[in-house]
Amino acid sequence: EIVLTQSPGTLSLSPGERATLSCRASQSVSSSYLAWYQQKPGQAPRLLIYGASSRATGIPDRFSGSGSGTDFTLTISRLEPEDFAVYYCQQYGSSPPLFTFGPGTKVDIK
Amino acid sequence: EVQLLESGGGLVQPGGSLRLSCAASGFTFSSYAMSWVRQAPGKGLEWVSAISGSGGSTYYADSVKGRFTISRDNSKNTLYLQMNSLRAEDTAVYYCAKVYMIAAAGTGSFDYWGQGTLVTVSS
């Protein structure tokens, strides 16, 4: 079973700053199957990045994803007020469990 | 516009049963795998179960295997989750989610989510 670890647990930043979120897998993950989601309180998650680096439809270009193997990164180039939320990485694999989520990183206002 | 609308949540006693439904619209339902993902209060996301577009293949997390059954009725554009032998640790908001596909290939991610339905298991 692949375990995803996200760091830091909480990131306190100001609007306009750059946010760098890490997702590390216990085993190598296919880049084709690594995704990132944003979740705000009381809302369903929203797909931001799929295939490690492809932005989903309608996602602003200040969001970018990178990485391969066991280390992946979500970068928000300049934080907007609406970007303060919890971010989850997620992987899909051929062995059970089919889908795995990381524990999340909360980005809050400093 | 893609819409996913869950229903069927509520309060149930430990050991009880509940069936969740997810009504889908705005896309060709039978062409897409679907999944259930849950989130316990104040916790992270946990994948629960998935089903292929035809319904012929189903997959479960170990935590629910043998107790939950995923199914779909493509004639009604509806996804289901039958939950039996419920435990306190099953208390969560349950989301249905559509598997994101590009050119008939899965991306291993979920591009549309419902708003969720709350299941509370308590005596």
Automatic annotation (TrEMBL), chain A:
Annotated Gene Ontology cellular components are: extracellular region; immunoglobulin complex; plasma membrane
Tree of life domain: Eukaryota
InterPro entries from the UniProt entry: Ig-like_dom, Ig-like_dom_sf, Ig-like_fold, Ig_sub, Ig_V-set, IgV_Light_Chain
Q: Name one GO biological process term.
A: adaptive immune response
Gene3D superfamilies in alphabetical order: Immunoglobulins
Write one Pfam family the protein is assigned to.
V-set
**Keyword terms:** Adaptive immunity, Immunity, Immunoglobulin, Immunoglobulin domain
Cross-referenced SMART domains: IG, IGv
Domain named Ig-like is located at 1-90
Assembly description: Immunoglobulins are composed of two identical heavy chains and two identical light chains; disulfide-linked.
Q: What is this protein called?
A: IG c1294_light_IGKV3-20_IGKJ3
Q: What organism does the UniProt record list as the source?
A: Homo sapiens (Human)
